[in-house]
Design goal:
This protein has helices at about 1-20, 40-50, and strands at about 25-35, 60-65, 70-75, 80, 95-100, 105-110. By secondary structure, the chain is α+β, with helices and mostly antiparallel strands.
């Protein structure tokens, strides 16, 4: 389950940012999770609670913001929405797509004390 490692990385990022920006507690974390990221939202929510125990983010609320998948089609030279990583272009049916959004997971913002 790579979601636990991802959540541990988020907690480490929070710890480093707390040292830089001098906050003691994180009360809310908003994560952007792309539809093509291979990250299961339910697993992230479960793992986040486990990964934050005993840390400055223990008890923090987690908000997951889903980003749609988008790609640039090299065949029809257009930006298109994609639901799955290996789907064909919905405009021309071609498979030469370059993912431009939706494969990321990042911290959007935090509420801290």
């Amino acid at each position: 389950m790579h979601e636990l490692a991802l959540c541990q990385s988020v907690v480490e990022t929070l710890r480093r940012q707390a040292a830089v920006h001098h906050f003691a507690r994180v009360t809310n974390v908003r994560l952007e999770v792309g539809a093509l990221s291979c990250v299961a939202p339910d697993a992230i929510a479960f793992c986040f609670e486990a990964a934050t125990r005993g840390t400055l983010a223990e008890g923090a609320r987690l908000e997951l913001l889903r980003l749609p998948g988008e790609a640039w089609c090299l065949e029809c030279d257009a930006s298109v929405a994609v639901a799955e990583r290996h789907d064909p272009c919905p405009r021309c049916g071609g498979y030469r797509l370059r993912i431009t959004q939706g494969d990321e997971m990042r911290i959007k913002d935090l509420d801290v004390e």
